[in-house]
Amino acid sequence: MDLRYTPEEVAFRDEMKTFFREKIPAEIRNKGAAGHHATKQDMITAQRIMNQHGLAVTNWPVEWGGKDWTPMQRYIYTEELMSNHVPAPLPFNVAMVGPVIAFFGTEEQKKHFLPRAANIDDWWCQGFSEPGAGSDLASLKTRAVRDGDHYVINGQKTWTTLAQYADWIFVLARTNPEARKRQEGISFILVDMKTPGITVRPIQLVDGGHEVNEVFFDDVRVPVGHLVGEENRGWDCAKFLLANERSGIARVGLSKANIRRLRDLARTVPSGDATVWDSESFRYKVNEVEIDLKALEITQLRVIANERKRGGLPDPASSILKIKGSEIQQRITELALELAGPFALPYHDMEDEIPDGANDLPDGFDWADTVAPSYFNNRKVTIYGGSNEIQRNIIAKMVLGF
Amino acid sequence: MDFEFSDDQRLLKDSVDKLIGAAYDDLGKRNKAQAEPHGYSEELWTKYAELGLLSLPFSEEEGGFGGGTVETMIVMEAIGRGLALEPFFASIILGANFIRLGASAAMRQDLVPLIADGSQRLAFAHTERQARYDLHDVATQARRTGNGFILEGDKSVVVHGDSATKLVVSARTGGNRRDRHGITLFLVDTESTPGLSRRAFPTQDGQRAASVSLGSVELPESAVLGEVDHGADLIDSVSALATAALCAEAVGAMSALHDLTLDYLKTRKQFGVTIGSFQVLQHRAVDMFTALEQARSMEYFAAMMATAENPRERQAAISAAKIQINKSIRFLGQSAIQMHGGIGVTMEYRSGHYFKRLTMLESAFGDTDHHMRLLDKAGGLLEAA
Ligand SMILES: Cc1cc2nc3c(=O)[nH]c(=O)nc-3n(C[C@H](O)[C@H](O)[C@H](O)COP(=O)(O)OP(=O)(O)OC[C@H]3O[C@@H](n4cnc5c(N)ncnc54)[C@H](O)[C@@H]3O)c2cc1C
Description:
The complex is a heterodimer. By secondary structure, chain A is an alpha+beta fold. Chain A is built from 12 helices and 10 strands. In chain A, strands 1-4-5-8 form a 4-stranded mixed beta sheet. Chain A has a 4-stranded antiparallel beta sheet with strand order 2-3-7-6, with no helix packed on it. In chain A, strands 9-10 form a two-stranded antiparallel sheet. The model of chain A is unreliable at 353-359 (pLDDT under 50). Helices cover 50% and strands 16% of the residues of chain B. In chain B, helix 9 (311-340) packs antiparallel against helix 10. Chain B has helices at 7-23, 27-34, 42-51, 69-82, 88-102, 105-116, 231-267, 279-305, 311-340, 350-363, 368-377; strands at 122-125, 141-144, 148-159, 166-172, 183-189, 196-202, 208-220, 224-225, 269-270, 273-274. Chain B contains 11 helices and 10 strands.
């Protein structure tokens, strides 16, 4: 047993660090470091740079631009990406639809969609959830009815992240309502957002931001060639996709970077004749979350090491990564809120373009305006990607054998 | 021991609950009020006045409502439940109490009727950038001149300071930045005072605030509230009342949020059943209920102790109450959002707005760490056996 990186891994880490720091514009990374959302253009710029260097779709099959990396290398890549506040390659393209097309799609679909997804020539969004189908995704009602060489789609999706930017949406729709099991009548279909009959309505989140939408389908005609995999076997694609989603969700690198920032900021916030960092009670709370994070990091490495033995099958223990990772992210936002104190109160419109240095803020510290919105917004991380209750159900059933 | 309200208190509760309940029963109405010039409903403010709420702390002899901490609690709970936007806390709980406890007879004669009818609105311009939650940390200077004072300094996040017609401003007439002694309070007109400027901004919970800048503001001797150099006594008395009031607002908001969550658990269906049938969610709802009831008990305790004679006992009680409230807010608020799923994090649904207001109440007049230190300094809560 040895918990240290091998010399090769250290070299690889340095290579990744150097790449992210030298190639991704500092302006984009600094925004992330200051707790601001990356803009659409930032995300595109960053991903295209990564793509040019063959580092955007490292998780894909090698013939489509992926890397033949060890699980450790994948881990180090993600860790360096996050801890340098680089916007992650668009998950809908890179972690979701790309792998599904690469695994289940036709040659034609692969050739057309994969290079475009890698370079965000197409921006994808995920049309799974519906008002009545959240945790219980298999109860979805959106219908796709075959009509000649088209599907006609009717129904509603919701919580569709960044659909306002999307060129394409991948939807789960019911093609056989009579199927014996609910999961068996569902298909995975690619839909051009410009198709007549699609309406996108914004949903404002508690932090004031516009990040999710409702997407309505009213007699939307889609060529049957946009079906991925077999008709009525879309659930296989969905399961494959959700398993991929879960493995990246611990966000250890991001949490590390956020804790470092918290520590730095705490040294600048006055409290009495000293700073907040001089307060033992605050430091203990930060230490506690650092311990949680260290344990999570090692747990994640153990899950990764295990993956090799499992032949790439997802480990149900990866639900631990989602549960602890999301709780740690939330805990850090709580501590930032405590740190800002009375200056978390002023509201600053996050939809405005971010002013340089944000010096024209009305009151308090120039970093404090993002603290409350980020606390509010990050409640989502224990809800989406399979809520933490659902993750606990998975562990109870698959690991503990209840 | 008696936990029952008197007939008069019940009457007050009924009328306030009805007024605020009807005014804020849907988010559309709240959004509309928020879009008014001052960020709250002028019409409703007038109705507060008609009910006598705006004279709540003033004695009946003075033409006031003669309400104490229990009456305050009743009104603040209703405000919490309704997510009301009007500056009742800033103008009445803080402002009017400073006037009641600190103003000269002449000042009161002028001001009490105008506060009571809602035309004069007050705010407390006290917090400074370096002060965090320390109520005695005041850097703003008040220099004596021949017949008055000149004030110099900056005040931060003055809640409802943008629409206030008068500000209660703290400044230092003596001592060092963090001394208890040497703080003086002044009543400053916002419209006719050269050198005073305000920058207004919205707050995270949908209310308004301002930063206030005092650049060589000249004030006459008659602007002083209470005694020169002894402002901290007034601040401590009023902050005890204010903290108890915020505890009540939080309990009101928590009880409404708990109700909303229970409703949701009993109606939202997934996997063919209401999600409330999952025992893990039932237990979380029970823990929320427990957190709420623990908070309510300490809300009552704060109301009883906010006017205690012994300052050490008063501080210990108020700090203990605020800590319990803060603890309950965190657990209950986060649980409510979690159990609502995606709906919980949207602006379109009420739960998120309660969550935001409650989050801001957690830090108002001191977060948990701050009050833990004060409680510790006061020697804890239990008296020796
Ligand atoms: C910000 C955000 C972005 C999102 N982006 C997308 C997107 O791009 N595309 C997309 O398709 N979806 C997206 N989602 C949807 C997300 O996947 C769902 O919110 C999630 O599946 C939960 O569903 P729900 O919101 O309907 O909550 P519900 O399923 O109604 O759950 C409500 C509560 O009940 C609990 N619960 C439910 N079932 C059980 C059970 N069996 N046992 C115990 N507890 C249970 C839940 O944990 C939760 O606490 C997004 C959501 C959010 C908040």
